């Protein structure tokens, strides 16, 4: 589906969808619990549905209706399973260790860019702990054997998702285990979300000087709760406000562990200029990678040059996000230069409109819809259906606050 967005500032109230990061974790922990959990305010994005289907394949019973899931934890562990992770890196990287800890011989399948996303830490460490891989640098691939505990040495600079996957799996093992980070852990706020979820389900993890210690033989306890609002989705509306829209954003928790809560400070303090303009920024985005596409749009309207740094990992997301957002903005009058691990963005004041591709990336499509509010002519976004990955009704919400769009198949 291609969508043309007409230049218009937005006004009204939105309730942001539930956090995808929190929802993944709550579903997995509930499925590993001994009993029945109830999760409310659950949003049926493609990624969350993939995680639920995978946990069903591993033996959980999940009844999902409206925005509520009733989850009965795994009782009978299957000998083998096929886990379709769709395009979700979180689903894949969280569940490889979980399936191995349960001793399920598993085939993992996926599509889009997922088959090319690395799983290196598991390939390096798991053969030392009883698990073998049938892996040829793509999907499908298989794991065989039951994971055993001990010391796991993990590069913290590839993705925090590997740490989360291990943290979910290690309490299930008989032996005590230790995660030893061999480099600085990037995106640590995501691991903090995981630790909070584990605590709510009765599993204890001790943070050490170089990583985490996890006692074996623990049991997940059922827990009922509500998924909090997603700051990474709120970021699109926060940036739109900085560009002149007037959107009241509801559904966020000020006590959230989400690293993307940083968007509030960025929009309200860092780029705020009491004289009416926007001052440029220089941001280390190692802990907030999901904000980079829409921050690039914001930088295009700041007075001077802005910089995004420590964002090389965005080259292995749903697309090469550094390249994609640069191409999109430059195609409509922006001035964005790719750096080795980030971007240089020169403020231009306004954009021309025209036509861009979404690169099959939900965050690129939504970021360009925000950019359209300050274009001088309509902006066509090709492949806009990709927003279903995280925010299926984004464009309907966009229209509800005054956005004007037209659709074509």
TrEMBL record:
<feature type="binding site">
    <location>
        <position position="389"/>
    </location>
    <ligand>
        <name>phosphoenolpyruvate</name>
    </ligand>
</feature>
<dbReference type="InterPro" id="IPR006264">
    <property type="entry name" value="EPSP_synthase"/>
</dbReference>
<protein>
    <recommendedName>
        <fullName>3-phosphoshikimate 1-carboxyvinyltransferase</fullName>
        <ecNumber>2.5.1.19</ecNumber>
    </recommendedName>
</protein>
<feature type="binding site">
    <location>
        <position position="290"/>
    </location>
    <ligand>
        <name>3-phosphoshikimate</name>
    </ligand>
</feature>
<feature type="binding site">
    <location>
        <position position="25"/>
    </location>
    <ligand>
        <name>3-phosphoshikimate</name>
    </ligand>
</feature>
<feature type="binding site">
    <location>
        <position position="21"/>
    </location>
    <ligand>
        <name>3-phosphoshikimate</name>
    </ligand>
</feature>
<feature type="binding site">
    <location>
        <position position="159"/>
    </location>
    <ligand>
        <name>3-phosphoshikimate</name>
    </ligand>
</feature>
<feature type="binding site">
    <location>
        <position position="20"/>
    </location>
    <ligand>
        <name>phosphoenolpyruvate</name>
    </ligand>
</feature>
<feature type="binding site">
    <location>
        <position position="161"/>
    </location>
    <ligand>
        <name>phosphoenolpyruvate</name>
    </ligand>
</feature>
<keyword id="KW-0028">Amino-acid biosynthesis</keyword>
<comment type="pathway">
    <text>Metabolic intermediate biosynthesis; chorismate biosynthesis; chorismate from D-erythrose 4-phosphate and phosphoenolpyruvate: step 6/7.</text>
</comment>
<feature type="binding site">
    <location>
        <position position="161"/>
    </location>
    <ligand>
        <name>3-phosphoshikimate</name>
    </ligand>
</feature>
<dbReference type="InterPro" id="IPR001986">
    <property type="entry name" value="Enolpyruvate_Tfrase_dom"/>
</dbReference>
<comment type="function">
    <text>Catalyzes the transfer of the enolpyruvyl moiety of phosphoenolpyruvate (PEP) to the 5-hydroxyl of shikimate-3-phosphate (S3P) to produce enolpyruvyl shikimate-3-phosphate and inorganic phosphate.</text>
</comment>
<feature type="binding site">
    <location>
        <position position="317"/>
    </location>
    <ligand>
        <name>3-phosphoshikimate</name>
    </ligand>
</feature>
<feature type="binding site">
    <location>
        <position position="187"/>
    </location>
    <ligand>
        <name>3-phosphoshikimate</name>
    </ligand>
</feature>
<keyword id="KW-0057">Aromatic amino acid biosynthesis</keyword>
<feature type="binding site">
    <location>
        <position position="160"/>
    </location>
    <ligand>
        <name>3-phosphoshikimate</name>
    </ligand>
</feature>
<dbReference type="InterPro" id="IPR013792">
    <property type="entry name" value="RNA3'P_cycl/enolpyr_Trfase_a/b"/>
</dbReference>
<dbReference type="InterPro" id="IPR023193">
    <property type="entry name" value="EPSP_synthase_CS"/>
</dbReference>
<feature type="active site" description="Proton acceptor">
    <location>
        <position position="290"/>
    </location>
</feature>
<dbReference type="GO" id="GO:0003866">
    <property type="term" value="F:3-phosphoshikimate 1-carboxyvinyltransferase activity"/>
</dbReference>
<keyword id="KW-0808">Transferase</keyword>
<keyword id="KW-0963">Cytoplasm</keyword>
<dbReference type="InterPro" id="IPR036968">
    <property type="entry name" value="Enolpyruvate_Tfrase_sf"/>
</dbReference>
<comment type="similarity">
    <text>Belongs to the EPSP synthase family.</text>
</comment>
<comment type="subunit">
    <text>Monomer.</text>
</comment>
<dbReference type="Pfam" id="PF00275">
    <property type="entry name" value="EPSP_synthase"/>
</dbReference>
<feature type="binding site">
    <location>
        <position position="321"/>
    </location>
    <ligand>
        <name>phosphoenolpyruvate</name>
    </ligand>
</feature>
<feature type="binding site">
    <location>
        <position position="363"/>
    </location>
    <ligand>
        <name>phosphoenolpyruvate</name>
    </ligand>
</feature>
<feature type="domain" description="Enolpyruvate transferase">
    <location>
        <begin position="7"/>
        <end position="397"/>
    </location>
</feature>
<feature type="binding site">
    <location>
        <position position="20"/>
    </location>
    <ligand>
        <name>3-phosphoshikimate</name>
    </ligand>
</feature>
<feature type="binding site">
    <location>
        <position position="89"/>
    </location>
    <ligand>
        <name>phosphoenolpyruvate</name>
    </ligand>
</feature>
<feature type="binding site">
    <location>
        <position position="117"/>
    </location>
    <ligand>
        <name>phosphoenolpyruvate</name>
    </ligand>
</feature>
């Amino acid at each position: 589906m291609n969508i043309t967005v007409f230049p218009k500032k937005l006004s009204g109230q939105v309730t942001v969808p539930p956090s995808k990061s929190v929802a993944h974790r709550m579903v997995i922990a509930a499925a590993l619990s001994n009993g029945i959990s109830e999760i409310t305010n659950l949003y049926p994005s493609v990624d969350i549905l993939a995680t639920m289907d995978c946990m069903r394949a591993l033996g959980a019973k999940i009844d999902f209706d409206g925005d509520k899931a009733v989850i009965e934890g795994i009782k009978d562990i299957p000998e083998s399973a096929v886990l379709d992770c769709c395009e979700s890196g979180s689903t894949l990287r969280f569940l490889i260790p979980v399936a191995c800890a349960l001793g399920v011989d598993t085939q993992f399948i996926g599509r889009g860019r997922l088959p090319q996303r690395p799983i290196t830490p598991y390939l390096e460490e798991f053969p030392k702990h009883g698990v073998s891989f049938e892996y040829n640098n793509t999907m499908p691939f298989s794991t065989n054997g039951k994971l055993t505990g001990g010391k796991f040495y993990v590069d913290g600079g590839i993705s925090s998702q590997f740490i989360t996957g291990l943290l979910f799996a290690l309490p299930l093992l008989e032996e005590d285990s230790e995660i030893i980070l061999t480099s600085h852990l990037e995106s640590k706020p995501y691991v903090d979300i995981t630790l909070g979820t584990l605590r709510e389900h009765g599993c204890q993890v001790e943070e050490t000087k170089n990583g985490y210690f996890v006692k074996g033989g623990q049991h997940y306890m059922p827990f009922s709760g509500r998924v909090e609002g997603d700051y990474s989705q709120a970021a699109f509306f926060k940036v739109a406000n900085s560009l002149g829209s007037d959107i009241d954003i509801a559904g966020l928790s000020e006590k959230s562990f989400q690293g993307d809560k940083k968007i509030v400070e960025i929009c309200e303090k860092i780029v705020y200029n009491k004289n009416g303009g926007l001052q440029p920024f220089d941001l280390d985005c190692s802990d907030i990678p999901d904000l980079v596409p829409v921050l690039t749009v914001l930088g295009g309207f700041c007075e001077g040059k802005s910089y995004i740094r420590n964002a090389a990992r965005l080259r292995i997301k749903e697309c090469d996000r550094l390249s994609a957002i640069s191409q999109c903005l430059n195609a409509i009058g922006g001035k964005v230069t790719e750096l080795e691990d980030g971007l240089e963005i020169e403020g231009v004041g306004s954009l021309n409109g025209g036509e861009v591709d979404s690169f099959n990336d939900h965050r690129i499509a939504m970021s360009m819809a925000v950019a359209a509010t300050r274009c001088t002519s309509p902006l066509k976004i090709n492949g806009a259906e990709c927003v279903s990955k995280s925010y299926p009704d984004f464009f309907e919400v966009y229209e509800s606050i005054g956005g004007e769009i037209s659709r074509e198949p």
